Amino acid sequence: MFDTLSEKFSNAFKYVQGKSKISEENIEETLKEVRTALLEADVNFKVVKEFIASVKEKAIGEKVIKGVNPGEQFVKIMHDELAKIMGDANEELNLDRPGIVPILIVGLNGQGKTTFSGKLALHLKSKKKKDVLLVPADTFRPAAKAQLETLAKQIDVECYDSDLNLHPKDIVLKAIEYAQKHHKNVVIIDTAGRLHVDEELMGQLKEVKIALDSFKPEVLMVADAMTGQEAVNVSKTFHEAIGVTGIVLSKMDSDAKGGAALSIRHVTGVPIRYVSMGEKMKDLELFHPDRLAKRILDMGDVLSLVEKAQENINEDDAESMMKNFQKGKFTVDDFLKQMEMMSSMGSMTSILKMIPGMGGMLRQLGDLSPAENEMKKMKVIISSMTKEERQNYKVIKESRLKRIARGSGSTEQAVTDFIGKFKQMEQMMGGLSSMMKGGGMPSFPGMGPQKGFRQEAGAMPQMPGDKQKKKGTKGPWGKGYF
Ligand SMILES: Nc1nc2c(ncn2[C@@H]2O[C@H](COP(=O)(O)OP(=O)(O)OP(=O)(O)O)[C@@H](O)[C@H]2O)c(=O)[nH]1
Ligand SMILES: [Mg+2]
Known about the structure:
This protein is of the alpha/beta class. The protein has helices spanning 3-12, 24-40, 45-61, 70-86, 113-126, 143-155, 168-181, 199-212, 229-242, 259-268, 289-296, 302-312, 315-326, 332-344, 348-352, 358-365, 369-383, 387-391, 398-408, 412-437, 453-459, 466-471; strands at 101-106, 132-137, 158-159, 186-191, 218-224, 246-250, 272-276, 284-286.
């Protein structure tokens, strides 16, 4: 996500770095490169023009703040303007009103509507405590109903048994009636897609919307971020035809350019509400323009990282690992849990990118997938080990080694290598633990006695935990950072 743009921006900034003051002359070259980078990222040309004009005006008008170097000041202006074109603050749907809220999911063929319907249902159920009904209303492609039913089962949300012989507007009205009877709060309606915007589709969607009018429906348009300006144009057409209340950018995990994310709000005037980041049901993020701007500028996104950790890390597991660690014990099971915690948070690259300054380093490191594959292989080997072996690998002698190799479909050498690596890790952990006991490393965060991960995350002064959020600061980059 935004990889190329980040790299080009960091190159562009070198012209202002080290200067004693920002002037029209010394930002000229930078702005030229920023402009090219944005156009190459497939950002709408009008958006680029306004963006550049605005950055230029702010940069030249900016007073030099004592102690802040102009390079940093320029990055701060870029950050604010990037966040502004994407829409200021996160604007999640407000569903806290009495009665049923219907959410109509619309968009072209294959953009990710059905997948997003499931993701949104899971999000609203688990985070917002809503009772959700999923409604298949795609009468165009009958298999779509089964697809939604499968997703619904996976996330344990009820799926309405639509009669696909009816017109979508009648399906929807019946579903609402059913939802009222069963005291649901939200009804998510998955509609049909078409290859291109056509009159039949728009006519059908308009009728559905009119049928729902008295319930004040939300209309979410799902647009594939990878299609760049096409996504922008289609969203505009949909908005003009049926009135869209929010945009969902799907497949952001595969979009390296970022053109749609940077243009769609500005061109359509419709806020981006969610970002779909993968094929799994939990791969959904709220759209936070300021956090994305930070990711684009390699400033990291520690807030999202902490949130991800809090959502995905099981506190009991973390506690039991900590206890083992304090006793100087490190088992294969602990190692497996650590790997699982990491992978539940996303790919290695996506996690590292959230750490400030890591973007540039990752570019030098290149592809991290060999390391991820290595982790996968280790997991398979561990899954062939018995409980006893995982608690104490020393019992693994020749016959056990053979069995593990056979069970995991790997060679005996691979199992021996794994045990060798694990021994090294065990030694490292043991060393770390005794250093701490001896007072060698008094303030290693997260390792204090009787403290779970969550408490530590909130208490670390340099990390933006819950406390800071309540105060309404913007995380570590709030006032005073630049
Ligand atoms: N990588 C990635 N793939 C996605 C994402 N969202 C959906 N997909 C994939 O895109 C394909 C199409 O997704 P669907 O949800 O069926 O799209 P749709 O808009 O409902 O398609 P139609 O109903 O045929 O119009 C599927 O293979 C999904 O797994 C995403 O955020 N990231
Ligand atoms: Mg579909």
